[in-house]
Amino acid sequence: MVCSEHFAEECFERCLHVEGSQRTLRPGSVPSIWMNKNFQEPYTSRSVQNRKKQTNYFCLSYRLDWTGKNSREEPKGIVFLSKLLLVFQHCHLCFSANPALSVTQTGTMMTIQSSCSCCSETFIWQIQPYLLGKFPVGNLLLSFAILCAGASVNKVLLVFRHMGMLIYSEPTYYYHQRHLLIPAIVSFWRSYQAKIINSLNGKEVTLAGDG
């Protein structure tokens, strides 16, 4: 099979002289680049740049731009399990069809394990990263959002259950609040308070009080 990868760059022309615009093959062009499917390009500075170009992410909306954002700022969406499993119709290692799949849940996070009978390999994929090595980020972010919004955890979890969304139990929220969220807030406040006091060191200040 011959595709654009087998033609040199000078074999193409663009409708607009703008990088990224649609390009067409020049008449009479001959494929001159032949690559074996097992060929691996050596890791040179040029190959690294090529790999970066191949993995460039382009979005039409600023809301979907995740570059340079942390886990809280990164865009998130609701994914249906039936649609998610479509990605696992083939083995991710040898590309054989219909590997054995198993799905487990940890609060808002799903873990999918794909076991292939052809290559005898197992591929494990989790839909969320971990924080502190053991807490799914989505679980902590949900607890953080409920706490900061002053919302009722009962109502929020009830809304998710009506939607059929995977969610943790109420005691998990209070565990997050007691052992992670409140200590983090107190630690931040104390460091912020100390920073303000240090900035006022040696300066005259006016204090006001009530009663």
From TrEMBL:
Annotated keywords: DNA-binding, Membrane, Metal-binding, Transmembrane, Transmembrane helix, Zinc, Zinc-finger
UniProt GO MF annotations: DNA binding; zinc ion binding
Membrane-traversing stretches: 140-160
Source species, domain of life: Eukaryota
Family annotation (InterPro entries): THAP_Znf
Domain THAP-type: 1-34
Record's keyword annotation contains DNA-binding: yes
Protein's name in the database: THAP-type domain-containing protein
Organism: Acropora cervicornis (Staghorn coral)
Source organism phylogeny: Eukaryota, Metazoa, Cnidaria, Anthozoa, Hexacorallia
